[in-house]
Amino acid sequence: MTIFSRWFRRPDILATETPKGPWGGSGDDGNSGPRNPWAQPPGGRKPAAKPTALDEFLRKARGSGGGGGGTGGFGGLPSGANARGLWAIGVAIIAVVWILFTSVHQIGPQQRGVVTYFGKYAGTLDSGVRLTMPAPIADVTVVDVQKIRTDNFPVGDGENLTLTGDQNIIDLAYSVRWDISDPRDYVFQLAEPNDTVRAAAESAMRAVVATTTLDQAIGTGRTVIEQRVAELTQQILNDYKSGVRIQGVAIKQAAAPARIVEDFNAVTAAQQEAIANLNQSRSYAQQVVARAQGEAASFDKVYEQYKLAPEVTRRRMYYETMEAVLAKSDKTIVETPGGVVPYLPLSNAKRLPNPEAVQSTPAPAAAAAAPQPGAAQ
Questions:
Q1: pTM exceeds cut of 0.70
Q2: Alpha-helix residue ranges (DSSP H) falling in the chain
Q3: pLDDT tens digits, residue range 220-255?
């Protein structure tokens, strides 16, 4: 800039005396006076140090430079030997970082890594820090083999109407729990593993419920249904080679649809009442059988006594029977030693004012033939 200013300086003939500032002359023409602190030092500016290739590269990258000179490379970046060195260092750093991020794999304790070389299965990585070829040569898909996944049917608060074997419809809500048994099959055999598991579980549930009755579906048959659904779902997934293991099926709700819930509740109440009556009848039957068994045992004891003294046993049984029969009658028959059996209307004695007025009625002539002792009429 100093050289250019000297080239374009006015000729002396056209020069006029310029007003001096507070610092005096500029010092270029020899004028004395205090030197301007902002003016160039005596002897001109000191040449700046030559920038390094890194400084030039950073300056170009920040966009602070750029001019029309021939020192700029591609895209305004520096060129030459220094630029080639910088490019080599940058590429080497990127390559090292790329290899580190794509070759070192941290596999958790509950995870497994499926390794592929150019898309072909190459092996499975166990837990720990593992090394492979960098991408895109090798690719690692990490799957969690210990996580228990749960699918709920239906999703949300909607209805899941299912037809039973006796042509009834129930609203069925259930869940399916599963995990990954084979990472290789899980990654390669199924395009959408979650959708496949849901479809297989729903198909198995409808197939099993279609062979059961309504009472079994809403009653004690739930455990059997859950077991059969789990087995059938696992069989379907094994046929697909899905690498999925079914942990269990749980029925959360099995009830009638909301539109017929009142009628269904009435049927359920009737069924419960029938079960209660059946239990009551069984209890009564047990009581009757127990009483009959007791009477049979008593009869066996009487029979043993009868074999020892038949005449005495018959007489005692006769007296006991007559006592039980005549206890409900309003007539009293008294046997006298003389063979006369008077009739006492004891039922009318309560209505007579004087009980002594009761007269004995003689036995009719037909009763002249007195019965044998021990007999009664």
A1: no
A2: 2-7, 53-62, 81-103, 183-188, 193-209, 214-218, 222-240, 261-308, 310-326, 346-349
A3: 889 999 999 999 999 999 999 999 999 999 999 888
